[in-house]
Design goal:
The complex is a heterodimer. In chain A, 38% of the residues lie in helices and 17% in strands. By secondary structure, chain A is α/β, with parallel strands linked by helices. Chain B has helices at 8-19, 33-45, 56-68, 79-94, 121-126, 143-160, 170-174, 214-234, 254-269, 287-294, 310-318, 337-354; strands at residues 3-7, 23-26, 49-52, 73-77, 100-105, 136-138, 164-169, 176-180, 206-207, 238-241, 248-251, 274-279, 281-283, 299-304, 324-328. The chains are: A alpha/beta, B alpha/beta. The complex binds thiamine diphosphate and iron/sulfur cluster.
Chain lengths: 270, 355
């Protein structure tokens, strides 16, 4: 049997089609296989690279599965108390207005325990960008019901399925925050396939640009999967996002002030 | 600089800003609201950060963020608000960040009332948040001391990278007295090497309080404990009056200590051998000096505006050498000098009977 080494292969002109963004650290993540937190990280890192802002970024990580998010970026970062990332980000941005402040939160963190902090940061129009990972459960603590859990969805704390009579209805944070005057850009995207991941990245870039221009509060809600706690294969979990979550959480730009629209168009033409 | 008539809350606010306060976050609550109101006008005037937060929970987490960027930052509140800040304070301790917190204590528990009280002694010295740490706690007894301790608070918090709490009963915040403000320090532009400023031309900085491995968490805790030991060695502060030949040592902090001083002065005029020690730092508690005095006096009397909290620290310092008595008023009641004088007289008589 013949063995081939790299040297035996005729020299080819090779083009790099995929590499690690400079803003992403080389550290392997602790996320479960098939978890979309990793995709969200990559999108964010690519956006930092493309906008050339890595050295200005201060990332605020939440309490949740992404508690170590700061380890995965080549940027300054910190770790907020559960739900308080928008308040911590406020303290950072107000004292460092020239930095780009990004808070990253799960749905338990942002929509439950931290509902007041996100609402008021948005209402004040803090010049921060919030990345909101909506996976319809509390991932880190083992898949309990979140405010975003779908009706009928079984979780470890709603074993017979979420019942509206007991626990009300899923919270639609993008719709809610888009009502506030000081929000500049609010979008909901999904991470379930390549096309949607590309759209998600566009939204992240728009949100960051809105912050760079000082236009107000921006948030990108990302529908994400938690195969581990949903008890599904990664593939089935992505399918579940598409078929079950999107109908409850329709995708789109919920708020885009004219100045942000102009920024988004600039990108299309450019 | 000239002495002027100042209200305690306003004096602290103005002193903080002159000591270098760069960012303030707070939420209204009586009896500290004038502090927030004063800064709402003065900070923007100086191009500094003032923000009224949506809650004390948010305020302390804004302080956490601002402290992460190496900014001199502060919040102020009163008892119920302090309770809400405890989680944030623990994160700040776990991230080794400097900041100043004012707690103008009021009557409790619950909503209680807005009258001066000292019921948060345990909370500020022992349980400012979960986990093993103590803040540095300064306890002023006059408007002038409130000013001086505010400046000291900023110096200590920077020096040790450790939070400082100014714990005063509402009386200190509400009363007006002639006092002198400090000169304005030049604005600070330098940021410490650990601060979050953006990873430009340097490795990234991380501010966090997580240590997943037990050994790493223990090592971090030992570092905090070593710092607290150093603070205990070097920062004990107190005020002393007529202790040289005292048979009875009266102890009290803040307003209770100040009223006790009047009582002790009157007792001295009557020829009673009484002295006073008023702790100015509640953490570190002036144990060393109290232990020394306990070798000489025959008894101690602790006076507080609570049910007996500093009392525990006095007992620990005295360590059984002499009896430790207590007199307290609770719920916003301020003891009168005559009440304390009565107790002093009774205790002195008891000593005479015993000897
Ligand atoms: C004050 C407080 N309460 C509860 C917890 C426990 N806790 C840690 S993570 C978490 C939920 C996280 O869920 P989510 O925000 O949806 O993020 P995910 O893990 O799904 O990414 C909870 C309840 C905590 N750390 N602090
Ligand atoms: S528990 Fe869920 S959200 Fe957390 S890392 Fe695993 S898959 Fe991702």
């Amino acid at each position: 049997m013949m063995t081939l080494s790299m040297e035996d292969i005729p020299h080819l002109e090779m083009e790099t089609v995929y590499s690690r963004p400079e803003s992403l650290s080389s550290r392997p993540t602790h996320y479960c296989p098939g978890c979309t937190h990793g995709i969200a990280h990559r999108i964010l890192a690519e956006a930092f690279d493309e906008l050339g802002i890595r050295e200005r970024v201060i990332l605020v990580a939440p309490v949740g599965c992404s508690v170590f998010a700061y380890d995965y970026f080549e940027a300054d970062g910190c770790e907020a108390a559960h739900g308080r990332a928008p308040a911590m980000a406020t303290g950072i941005k107000r004292t460092r207005p020239d930095n780009i402040v990004v808070s990253y939160q799960g749905d338990g963190d942002l929509a439950s325990i931290g509902a007041a902090e996100i609402l008021h940061a948005a209402a004040r129009g803090e010049h921060i960008t919030s990345i909101f990972i909506n996976n319809a459960v509390y991932g880190m603590t083992g898949g309990q019901m979140a405010p975003t859990t779908l009706l009928g969805q079984r979780t470890t704390s709603s074993p017979t399925g979420r019942d509206a009579n007991m626990t009300g209805f899923p919270l639609r944070m993008s719709e809610l925050l888009s009502q506030l005057d000081a929000t500049a850009y609010i979008a909901r995207v999904s991470l379930h396939d390549v096309k949607h991941i590309r759209q998600a990245k566009k939204a992240v870039i728009t949100a960051l640009k809105a912050q760079m221009q000082g236009l107000g509060f921006s948030m990108v809600e990302m529908l994400s999967s938690c195969p581990t706690n949903w008890g599904m294969t990664p593939k089935d979990a992505l399918k579940w996002v598409e078929t079950n979550m999107i109908p409850q959480y329709p995708l789109g730009d919920y708020k885009m002030i004219d100045e942000v629209r102009a920024l988004a168009l600039e990108r299309k033409q450019g | 600089m000239a002495r002027e008539l100042l209200k305690g809350n306003v004096a602290i606010a103005e002193a903080a800003l002159r000591a270098g306060l760069e960012a303030y976050f707070g939420y209204p609550i009586t009896p500290q609201t004038e502090l927030l109101e004063h800064l709402s006008a003065r900070m923007p005037e100086l191009g500094r950060v003032f923000l009224q937060a949506e809650s004390e929970v948010a305020a302390i987490n804004m302080v956490y963020g601002a402290a992460s960027t190496g900014t001199l930052t502060m919040t102020s509140t009163s008892s119920p608000g302090f309770s809400l800040m405890q989680e944030g304070l623990s994160y700040i301790a776990g991230s080794e960040l400097p900041c100043v917190i004012v707690n103008m204590m009021r009557g409790g528990p619950g909503l209680g009332n807005i009258l001066p009280a000292q019921g948060d002694y345990f909370q500020v010295t022992r349980s400012a948040g979960h986990g093993d740490f103590h803040p540095i706690v300064l306890a002023p007894a006059s408007v002038q001391e409130a000013i001086d301790f505010t400046v000291l608070a900023f110096d200590l918090t920077e020096k040790y990278r450790h939070m400082v709490i100014i714990a005063a009963d509402g009386q200190i915040g509400q009363m007006m007295e002639p006092a002198e403000l400090p000169p304005m320090r030049p604005a600070r532009t330098e940021r410490p090497a650990w601060a979050l400023t953006g990873a430009q031309g340097r490795a990234k900085n991380i501010v966090t309080s997580i240590y997943l491995k037990a050994e790493a968490e223990e090592a971090f805790n030992l570092k905090i404990q070593a710092r607290l030991q150093e603070i205990k060695r070097t920062e004990q502060r107190w005020y002393e009056y007529a202790t040289d030949d005292a048979d009875l040592l009266v102890l009290g902090f803040g307003t209770a200590g100040r009223i006790a001083l009047s009582a002790v002065q009157t007792a001295r005029e009557q020829g009673l051998k009484v002295g006073l020690l008023r702790p100015q730092t509640l953490y570190p508690f002036p144990d060393d000096r109290i232990a020394e005095l306990a070798e000489r006096v025959q008894a101690c009397l602790v006076v507080e505006m609570n049910a007996g909290q500093m009392l525990d620290d006095v007992r620990l310092a005295v360590n059984g050498r002499v009896p430790v008595k207590f007199y307290g008023r609770i719920g916003g009641v301020i003891p009168m000098p005559e009440e304390i004088l009565n107790v002093i007289t009774t205790e002195i008589d008891a000593l005479a009977v015993r000897s």
